[in-house]
Amino acid sequence: MQLLVFLGLRPELKVKVLGIDCGSEITGYGVVEQFDHNHLRCLAAGAIRLSSREPLSTRLAKVFQELNEIIAQHQPTEVAIEDVFYAANVKSALKLGHVRGVAMLAASSAHLVVAEYAPLAIKSAVVGYGRAEKSQIQAMVTHLLHLKTVPEPPDVADALAIAICHLHTAATLARQHAASRHS
Question: From the candidates 33, 66, 78, 155, which is the catalytic residue?
């Protein structure tokens, strides 16, 4: 790769991020590819729907199995999820924690590192405002990824936003690292 850069040729750089929006009823996912530093493309997006009538262990197994299939099919290079946030309902927070753990296990089982981002950081990176509404996130994700339709349910847009946040954050950190090496 250094030889290509030396010769003035830039290889096409590709990074694929699997964004996961964990939920006890709907877990959204989105695979976003970044190439040539600033072009984004949605490769896959969807929702893993869970029935509250099924035992928690069955729901967790379904999340694990489907995330494993998504990882195997799309071969992401990185995974990003939303960090833990304050929840008023302890029982809901515990269920969400279980789903997050399963998502992290699926990623680590595939030897992928998981980056975690606070909800405010995700909204700021995608919309420019940390208190953005769901509809604003959906609209901006649709715009940034040049999608023909708005991602539904909102959990899917949130997962895509998490992936975009990770790509923007990684690009900023890489620029800072490069600048510090040259100073």
Answer: 155
User: What are the residue ranges spanned by the domains of the chain?
Assistant: 9-178
Any catalytic annotation for residue 82? yes
Topology of domain 9-178, CATH: Nucleotidyltransferase; domain 5 (3.30.420)
Kindly report the pTM of this predicted structure: 0.87
Residue with tokens 């420019």: 128
Phi, psi (degrees; rounded to nearest 5) at 77: -95, -20
Catalytic (active site) residue 83: no
Is 155 labeled as catalytic in the residue annotation?
A: yes
DSSP assignment of 21-37, as one string? E--SSEEEEEEEEEETT
Q: What is the mean pLDDT of each run of 10 residues along the chain (183 residues)?
A: 41 82 96 87 98 95 98 98 79 90 98 95 94 95 97 97 93 58 62
Catalytic residue, from 33, 66, 78, 82: name it: 82
